[in-house]
Amino acid sequence: MELPRLLPVRQLFPSLRLADVREETLKQLAASNFAAKLKPGARVAIGVGSRGISNIASMAGAAVEFWISRGFKPFLFPAMGSHGAATAEGQADVLAHYGIDEKNMGCPILSSLEVESLGKTAEGIEVFFDRNAYNADAVMLLNRVKWHTDFAGKLESGLSKMMAIGLGKFAGAQRYHTFGYHLGLERVIRSAAAKVLATGKILGGLAVLEDAHHDTAQIEAVPAEGLIQREEELLELTKSWMARVPMPLDILIIDEMGKNISGAGMDTKVINRSVNGEANVWNTAPRIERIFVRSLTSLSYGNAVGIGMADVIHDRLYSVIDWHPTLINSLTASTPPNVRTPIHFSTDRECLERIAPTVGRMEVSEVRIGWIRNTLELASLRLSENMREEIERNPLLEVSGEAVPLVFDEEGNLPGIGVPAMQHA
Questions:
Q1: 121 and 217 fall within a common domain
Q2: CA dihedral defined by 111, 375, 286, 350, rounded to 10 degrees?
Q3: Taking Cα atoms as reference points, which of 51, 50, 53, 34 lies closest to residue 42?
Q4: Domain that holds residue 131
Q5: Same domain, yes or no, for 227 and 252?
Q6: Model pLDDT for residues 266-281, shown as the tens digit of each residue
Q7: Beta-strand pair 216-223/249-254
Q8: Which of 44, 48, 293, 387 is least enclosed by beta carbons within 10 angstroms?
Q9: CATH of the domain at 98
């Protein structure tokens, strides 16, 4: 089967990268009133999540440095729901692989699944608070503000979600997703976050925004007072920077998926899929008929949540799935369709040749193919030559080389896993 040749293409996203992430973190904290609220020597808990946030260790380290320099006693803790296989050791290990450990940070890392109950919200949702953090004098959160993979709203993923599901740990995550099934997850996050804020424990948080290149573009110290409103504003801003697949495709090849890429393994609003199994559900993304995923990142630790959104996967991905954390994550989030096993084959060639005839094209040469590294990195990609005129009409796209055929090795596989698409050419 002779598949279309692919063009290397650049998306001309503006670069908003901060020159010095550490200095900006220190600047934001110094300008905040966080320290003024506490007595000298107070214990400050810094909550950190598990997503693939650029420069996360640098920001966490700067936050620790700030608090120590002011005479306080900081410690870091994983603000995660069921991630790390819902174990204290697993969650500490996730942070360690991002460079967040006691040696690098210069402060303790306290990881536990034990929680304090804060009682119930008006909707009857019991709210939980990480016990180590609750027993500190104050809590500061560090998280990226971005769109959520499961729903669309004015408040999605960020500091508020961390106050709810992150601080709620496994006990909270189970209940919140169950209530979210009926009330909608945004309402649950708002309700639980309000209960957490009412404790007076939360100083605020460092809201991190990334540009379309997945670079740190903005860091802002957001106080607890007015946090919800400010997060809504920041979400609207970061959505305006969002990187997308530029046009409708028949097949999207994705080199790698994983929990460090997205909570759903792949960004649903990039691939236009739902965690509950539906295809092409977002009107903000182009239609994509088939998804082919080649591998699972090592930083996903075998958690293959998201495979259910693929139509075909390589055996190399299937063979490294650790079903224990995968099932815990999926069932806790009430999204069992997100771990349905797609068809899978032993070579890239067979995956593509089996799926290409299913997209409704009479000729294989007409199949529209895109190829990306992952759903975080979309500035460089490859698009099939049959879309050249469409590409050249788009002022935000630039063809950066000659079209080349898909070249398979002796075993029938494409080059490199996790290699940026521009380097494939």
A1: yes
A2: -120
A3: 34
A4: 21-240
A5: no
A6: 999 999 999 998 999 9
A7: unpaired
A8: 387
A9: 3.40.50.11440
